[in-house]
Amino acid sequence: MSGWEFPLENKDIQGSGPFISEGDDVDFAPGTTLPAHFTHWRFPVPESYTVSPPEHSNTLRLSPSKLNLTGLDGNYAGPEGQTFVGRRQQDTLFTFSVDLDFRPTSLEEEAGVSVFLTQNHHLDLGVVMLPVPDDSNGNNSIVVPPRSVGTNGGAGEELAPHLRFRGESYVPVPDDIVVPLPEAWRDRALRLEIRASNMTHYSFSAGPADAMSEMQTVLDVSNEAVSWGFTGVILGVYCTTNGQGGEGTPAYISKWSYIPQGQFMD
User: Fold this and answer.
1) How many CB atoms within 10 Å of residue 201?
2) What is the torsion angle, in degrees rounded to the nearest 10, for the CA atoms of residue 112, residue 113, residue 118 and residue 119?
3) Contacts of 9 (CB under 8 A, 6+ apart)
4) In 3-state terms, what secondary structure has residue 196?
5) Could you give the 3-state DSSP secondary structure of residue 265?
6) Considering the chain, what is the average pLDDT of its residues?
7) Is residue 241 within 8 Å of 109, Cβ to Cβ?
8) Which residue numbers delimit the Beta-xylosidase C-terminal Concanavalin A-like domain (predicted)?
9) Rounded to an integer, what distance in angstroms lies between the CA atom of residue 240 and that of residue 245?
10) CB 199 within 8 A of CB 47
11) pTM of the entire structure?
12) How far apart are the first and last CA of the chain?
């Protein structure tokens, strides 16, 4: 078979943003803006996203929305917005991670990472403030049986930060996983990671940002829950009060990384 030769590669062209085959290494430096390829699901509230705020430089400050990623009913969100920003999953295999500095003080305040398709199809791992379960032992491991934790937050009930995984989809998803954050991890920035190591599953992990050897896998979950529709998956970060009143506690995101690791093609 014969034909014209491909022209020589030339990436010296005008325009903003990375080439599609590149990954992310974003430090949110002072004076910068969100990268051009970052995207939102709903029209963003500009005040909810502050790059390198004075009190915490080289981070992205997320001011929480009242609505979480599911919104009002999995379809609608109203005019108040959802605090969520991400980038497209452009590779079959990848590792996406961020450092999260989040010190919640009130019931159901939450911030974390998400594999997001639509409001009724997403998989989330976050830090959330919840009542302390009676059997909490404060150990340094998150690999413990899932606990069913109430969220009524009665007066005087002790609250503590927890790691929580939960999913939303039209197909079955794993039960919620809720575990108290190990005491040694509290008041420290955490690394949250989503990795696709094969064609069918995501792996969610967490650990102290300054001690990568302590990273622990929370679960591996099938990507079937986010494998249809017309939007394509967005990998991103969110911050919400989960319907609670008040301004809520902001979250600070840093060391945003997306590493392409391979593409499967039919």
Assistant:
1) 14
2) -10
3) none
4) strand
5) coil
6) 89
7) yes
8) 27-258
9) 11
10) no
11) 0.89
12) 22
